[in-house]
Amino acid sequence: MPQVVIDRSRCKGCELCFKVCPKKLLRRSSQLSARGIYPCEASDPTACIGCLQCVLVCPDVAITVEDDTDDEQPTRK
Ligand code: SF4
Ligand code: SF4
C-alpha cells in the first residue's frame, strides 16, 4: 500500500499540497519544525492512494510516497 511521508525539515508550509490531495490527507502540523514553521503532516498516511499529486506540486521536494507492495525496493529516507 502507498504511504505518504513528509520531510518536516524541508517543508516550508506553503500549503500547495493540501489543495491537490484528493483524499484530503494533508494538513498543517500543530508542532513547530526546526525552521520555526508549522509544516505539513498527513492525517492518515496509510489512506494515501499514491496518486503523487502532492509530490509533483511540492516546490521543496518534501514529500515522498513509499509503496512496499512493489517487488522493487521502496524509497527509504
Ligand atoms: S499521493 Fe495523492 S493521496 Fe497520497 S497524500 Fe499525496 S495527493 Fe494525497
Ligand atoms: S507543498 Fe511541500 S513545502 Fe508546501 S506545505 Fe506541502 S510539503 Fe510543505
* Percent helix range: 10-25%
How much of the polypeptide forms β-strand, as a percent range? 15-25%
Topology as H/E string?
EHEEHE
- What gap, in angstroms, lies between the N and C termini? 17 Å
- Counted up, domains total 1
CATH architecture: 2-Layer Sandwich
Q: What is the CATH topology?
A: Alpha-Beta Plaits
What's the shape? globular
Largest beta-sheet characterization:
2 strands, antiparallel
Strand order of the largest sheet: 1-4
What ligand species are in this complex?
iron/sulfur cluster
- CATH class, named Alpha Beta
Question: How many beta-strand segments?
Answer: 4
For this entry, give a set of tags.
single chain, 77 residues, alpha+beta, Alpha-Beta Plaits, two-stranded antiparallel sheet, two-stranded antiparallel ribbon, 2 helices, 13% helix, 21% strand, binds iron/sulfur cluster
How would you sum up this structure, described in words?
This protein is α+β, with helices and mostly antiparallel strands. Helix content is 13%, strand content 21%. The protein has two helices and four strands, in the order βαββαβ. It has helices at 16-20, 53-57, and strands spanning 2-6, 26-28, 40-42, 63-67. The strands form two sheets. It has a two-stranded antiparallel ribbon. Strands 2-3 form a two-stranded antiparallel ribbon. It is globular, with a radius of gyration of 12 Å. The protein starts with a strand and ends in a 10-residue tail after the last strand. The mean pLDDT is 91. Bound molecules: iron/sulfur cluster (2 copies). One iron/sulfur cluster (SF4) is lined by residues 6, 11-17, 39-40, 57-58, 60, 62-63.
